[in-house]
Amino acid sequence: MDMAGPRTERLVEAVEGARVIDPLAERLAGFWSRTLSSERLRDLLSGRQLGHPLHPAAVLVPAGTLLSATALDLVGGPDARRGARRLVGLGLLAAGPAALAGWSDWLDTQEAERRVGVVHAASNAVGLSAYALSWWQRRQGRSGRLAGLAGAGVLGVGGWLGGHLAYAQGVGVDTTAFQAGPTEWTDAGSAADVTDVPRRVDVGGVPLLVTRLEGRIVVLADRCTHRGGSLSEGKRDGDCVVCPWHGSRFALGTGAVRRGPATRPQPRYEVRARDGRLQVRRREERALRVNPVDVSTPAQA
Fold this sequence. Notes:
alpha+beta; Rieske Iron-sulfur Protein; 2 domains; six-stranded antiparallel beta sheet; 9 helices; 16% strand
């Protein structure tokens, strides 16, 4: 068991560094860029309306139904065969929308994340193909259990790689989640220097976007919550700022996401002027931003 961690780590590091995947990734990127060219569709697939990426939630339906079918195969007996076949069919139908959401997220990745994403998608495609074979065999009056078991195993590999994309590589994670801004009023420069043109100001090592909206000063985190682009390098469009990397649009007054692929709002900062100086502080505290993780202290309920 102790060797499992190092072995899987070596495996995923090999995938991350496998430049041989890049030509295929480029072709796939071109295909999906054309297929998902609609901004409205990308906005929907990103999960902006949910406030979180859509793909992790969407995969619950195909994963749940397909694995339930395999469970029925193992313990359900002959009377469960019809139910298992229907579950396989439902899972295959639900896999399409979930895959589209995943490819939409994948388009905004690069290098190591993109390579792992290709192998993740390939594993899922093989697993779904095995389940499709299982469904066809069931339609022919055969059990289809072996194909289903094979599909479950391969989908497990794909799911593990999906977990690596999210939890190790941070794809889909709010890039400001662990960014600790000042919790006390902190000087951010001269208030007279703030104009309608957004600019970056570093306060305590944290980059902030500072601008005016209808005469009042507003301050947001400068790092885009989607993939970390500098919003101050983007363009202002009315009461919004547009990320220069992937085109996410944020309301300057509230930080709300007006257009994806971002799903999380930009953190806002409280602002005040004292003797011509601009002062800012975080609007809220989140434990992981301001407190170190101390394993010696038991968690409080």
